Amino acid sequence: KHWPPYNFSAGPAMLPKQVMEQAQSEFTDWRGKGLSVLDFSHRGTDFTEIAEKAEADLRQLLNIPKNYRVLFAAGGASFQFAMVPMNCLRNRAVYVDTGIWGSKAIKEAKQFGQVDVVNALSERDGLQAILPESEWGIEQGFDYLHFTPNETIGGVEFSDAPVVGRGQLIADMSSNILSRKINVEDYAVIYAGAQKNIGPAGLTILIVRDDIIQQPAAQSAPSLMRYSTLAESGSMYNTPPTYSWYLAGLVFDWLIKQGGVDVMEQRANERSQKLYQFIDKRSFYANPIHPSARSRMNIPFTLADESLNARFLEQAEMAGLHYLKGHRSVGGMRASLYNAMPVAGVDALIEFMVEFERTHG
Ligand code: PMP
Question: N6-(pyridoxal phosphate)lysine-modified residues are where (predicted)?
Fold first, then answer.
């Protein structure tokens, strides 16, 4: 059996079909201007209109208060691993480590000051879980607490922001932003690489509280790596990734028309529950994460017989189910189910998995 191609990659992820079609229809001639968005000057009125609408729509989607600035930066989320400590680490920061992305952020932060690391992955009932906050042993008086709400590689997700450090939280929301309701006021900084739930790779969205922007960055921080530079220039200190910004705007518009973050949250729950329930019923497939910490976005799974991995991936590709290979550090499979993934994509994957088990189990 063959399905319309579905992209299960952890990123770059699929964009909504309607967004692709709109971008296609406007590609050579944006709204009768005779020019493509690719041609637009980032300082011209047309691009300004695009940029402002994208920001306004994101503000509406996440209910971003007035005392937070939205910044559109380049460099990917990894760039923020350095920008965060450059701008916010004065004396001591706490980093909660629940996987590979958190560890990478820690590695960068350590170059800028004292970093207290909380190893928050623990075992519960033979599965991986997030250690309860009461056992983190955090010493108060830190500049900020950094965590990764959704660890894309391990498939570990927080169901809510930590209580400790609310108001001083810095979150790498790359792989679950806009997929569940959040209270922006819990955070000092939110950042997210765009290539999963927002748009094309290369763009990073930041939501930064005013007082964080006003505090001085590390003296050695390059201009472009200071939040204040981006904020004062309206994210146009240099040429921003204009086309990615435009596409992100189309995605935000699509999200609003779909019913916003509430609807995305319901769909994420539906998609992920379907797949977890299926995996849990079979001994042929397994997921290593405790139900309390399971990601709704990235679902790693293994086959009981690992020697079948290559065949599984090959046949999935042939059936139109792409990029199911797990991260190289983990192995096995991983199905990433971001906002643009229809429930039909999960149904197709489950049908494929049933058939694969029937013929190889
Ligand atoms: N943080 C998380 C949670 C991620 O999933 C990723 C990318 N998969 C990154 C950071 C790195 O993003 P980028 O490649 O945009 O630097």
Answer: 196
